[in-house]
Description:
This protein is an alpha/beta fold and 472 residues long.
Amino acid sequence: MASGELFDKSETLALRGKLIGPTCRLFFPHDPIKMVRARGQYMYNEAGEKYLDCINNVAHVGHCHPHVVSAASKQMETINTNSRFLHDNLVAYARRLAETLPPSLSVFYFVNSGSEANDLAVQLARRYTGNYDVMVMDNAYHGNTALLMDISPYKFKRAGSSGKRDWVHVVPAPSTYRKIFQEDNIDLGKAYADEVKKQLGDLKASEKIIAAFVAESLQSCGGQVIPPEGYFQRVIEHVHNAGGVFIADEVQVGFGRVGSSFWAFQLQHGFVPDMVTMGKPMGNGYPLACVVTTTAIASTSSIEYFNTYGGNPVSCAVGLAVLDVLEKEQLMENAKIVGAHLATRLRQLQSRHPIIGDIRGKGLFIGVELVLDRNTKEPATAEAQRVIFRLKDELVLLSVDGPACNVLKFKPPMCFTKADADLVTTKLERILTDIEDVGKNGTLDSGIESGMKQKDVSLPGTQAFTDEPLKV
Ligand code: PMP
């Protein structure tokens, strides 16, 4: 056994099967990976094999970054307590985050997860507006609380869920690839925003008013959807006119990932949401998340908000250290340069492989949509599964998502290099060539077989991995 391990892999797996809830899924359930350490953009399994991590946007500045680890450990040795005591870390961190945001977004609530942040944001919106309903984009995922499961079509549309509540209203995701409009050459930003306006008008006619429109600035689990220019600027106007507020979920896409701006909402020129929620990358793996809003919204609520761990001195020390590293190592600039390089390499693949229907993204947030036919855009779901399983065999971690589970998602730690991009695209090219060759010979398996060729060690109760994508 590797040092630091309590159990060998089969024991860990057996104990997990016995002790852990069956809906807590594993990546690659038919042959899960046991990770024992990580550094930078690499993770190591119990046998010492080194995986290139192309998906871990939580380890934002690199797994186990020494500056972050040291900040956490020093603060842990000194004091860690709740935020009802005065402590400098809380205010120093809030001040530092405020410097990255438009001046109107100036009041912070620190919490421990993206779900807590979105849940609180919706509560604040309801108190501020006096309204209850929520509007979201199709296929969106916003978190795991009861409230957020209800506003996440990604969850409530799946078999076995309780379905859509009547206070939840779903608008089309503003996809420029899978357009819902027949006409060519239309202003997609306006056309999709008009859909929002129309639904808000219909709601008004039935005497319903939304408290909030909640959307990711770039949709991640929904299939890496990049909204067309001009969309959010118009949507927020319609939402305000209808009496609601706009909550931008930056849990996946914030903190410089998009390369050209610190926040993904800033990609839409001049657009300023009423609230922004943040999480995952914020603490580089330490539980740290936040809602930032305006003084007007914050000041309407008189109910005390207490969160035992939110904003504790250790989490704020970690948050400050993450910002230090982002700045010192110029990781936003790196995301821009390496992201552009990765996109170029992927476009070269697209010119040779018809299975690549679309490549879209910003910085180190890129989606590659696989299709069986570029005209019909029929999703190549099994092939996408096959790709990530083959890559896993070659020690590269990539995931797949989107409503048809056919979008390969790149969102690696921000220290990803051009050499990493070259490595993964070279491997991807070989895999796509194999898939196309097998396809031509008419013997393409479902993609599952290639994963099953390894020892089948699935746990009792784990779903087939095509049921739900391998999401992080
Ligand atoms: N919002 C988005 C867009 C997410 O992707 C996630 C997590 N995948 C969440 C919110 C919830 O974050 P957490 O898992 O930290 O609760």
